[in-house]
Amino acid sequence: MADEFDLFVIGGGSAGVRLARIAAGHGARVGVAESRFWGGTCVNVGCVPKKFMVMAAEYGLAADDAAGFGWPIERGAHDWARFIAAKDQEIARLNRAYTGLLERAGAQMFEGYARFVDAHTLEIGERRVRAARIAIATGGLPTRLEFPGSELAIVSDDAFHLPGRPQSVVMVGSGYIAVEFAGIFAGLGARVEQVYRQDLPLRGFDADLRVGVAEALAANGVVLHPSVTPVRLEAHGAVKKLFLSDGTSLEADCVFMATGRAPHVAGLNLAAAGVVTAPSGAIPINDQFQTNIEHIYALGDVTDRLNLTPVATAEGHALADRLFGGSERIVSLVGVPSAVFAIPPLASVGLSEADAPVGTRVFVARFTPMRHALSGRERRSVMKLLVDPVTDTVLGAHMLGEDAPEIIQGLAVAITAGATKADFDRTIGIHPTVAEEFVTMRTQTRVVGG
Description:
This protein is α/β, with parallel strands linked by helices. The protein folds into three domains: about 5-140 and about 260-325, FAD/NAD(P)-binding domain (3-Layer(bba) Sandwich), CATH 3.50.50.60; about 150-260, FAD/NAD(P)-binding domain (3-Layer(bba) Sandwich), CATH 3.50.50; about 345-445, FAD/NAD-linked reductase, C-terminal dimerisation domain (Enolase-like, domain 1). The chain has twelve helices and 22 strands. A hairpin with a 6-residue loop joins strand 20 and strand 21. Helix 1 (about 15-25) packs parallel to helix 4 (about 80-105) and helix 1 (about 15-25) runs parallel beside helix 9 (about 310-325). The longest helix is centred in the N-terminal third of the chain and has 26 residues, at about 80-105. The chain starts with a strand and ends with a strand.
C-alpha cells in the first residue's frame, strides 16, 4: 500500500526544502524526494561553493595589493587541494543542515528520483507514494553547445571537483557563470581566454555595467574573444584545441562551457500526470504556481522564469502558506535584485537603461575606488541611477565594484518601497564609502532617448 501525503515535493533544493519545511510546520503530512544532494544546485554546485572560489581568488589579489599599503606580502602558489577539501567540508555541513531542517519540521525524506505513475502517484525506486498535491522543484542542469568534440569540455557542475586547478582555460560563454569562473580561474593564476558570440558579456544587464565588466575582465588578465562562436573541439593529449568561427583556434588544458541551463524534467514521466511543458522543457505555471493540472505545482528553476535562489525560496514559502497557512500572498518577479560575483562584482535592481521609458533621467558615476589609489590596481567602479522624470521615482540602480551586491541589496529595499531621487538626495552619506555616491549624484548624465 502506498504512503499517503497531503503534499509531496519532488526536489530537495532551495524551493523544495522551504516548501516542505513550512508546509510541515503548518501541520501538513509532507514527503520530499531528492535524487542527488540535499540543498540543490545552489548549495552544492552553484552559488555557495562558487562564492568560496571567488573569495579564494580575491585573497590572492589582495596579497598583490597589500604592497601599496606597506605589507610586502609575497604571493605563493595556490593550494587547490587544500581549498577544495575545506570547501567540501562546509558543503557537507550545509547538506546536514538542510536535512536537519526537514527532520525537525516532521517532513518525511526519500532518497531517490521520483517519477509520476499517475496524477496523484509517484514511484521512488521500489516505493510508491500518493499525495493530494504534488510540487515539482527539480531545478535545472547546465547545457552544452552542440558541435564536434563538445563533450570534451567541462560544465559548471564539473568545475567544483576538478582534481587540480587548470593552468589554462578557455571559457565559452558570457553569462554570469562564464564571467564569474573566468574571474575565478584568472585570480587563481590560470591563463584564461573567453569566447562569446555577443559584442559584450552579460546580455540582459545594463549596458554601462556590461562595458565595465569587459574592461574589468581584461584588466584581470582575461583575453576576450567577442563576436565568435566555437565550431569544433579536439583533444591532443592533455591539450584541448578549440576552433572558432573566425578561423582561429585556441589551446588550453581545460575548455569550460558555460552556455546556459535547462529545466531538469528528464525522467519525471510528466506525461503520466498530464503535465505539459514548453519546448524548452520549462513547466508553465500561473501566479499560484499551478501547472495545467490543478493539484500539481511547479516552482524554482524548473519553471525557467527568474532563476535565482532567493526567488525559488520565496516561491516555496509562499506556496506552503497558500496551501496550508491560509495566506493568499504571491511572489512578485518585478524589481528583483540580482548580482554577478565577478571580480569585482556587479549588482542591479529595477530597470536597465535599455528598458526604461523615453525621457528617463540617467545618472552615472565612474571612478577609481579609494583602495586602488594606493594598490595601483587598474580597477574602476561604475554606479548608475535611473529616475522617472515625472514622479522622481528611482526606477533602477546598478553598480559594478567592490561590495556592489551588499550595497544594491540595501537600495533594493528603498526602490521596492518607491523611493524618489529626492529621498536619495536628502539622505546623508557615510564618508568615506563607495556607497555614498548613490546619495551624492547631483549631475544628470543624459536622458533616455535624448
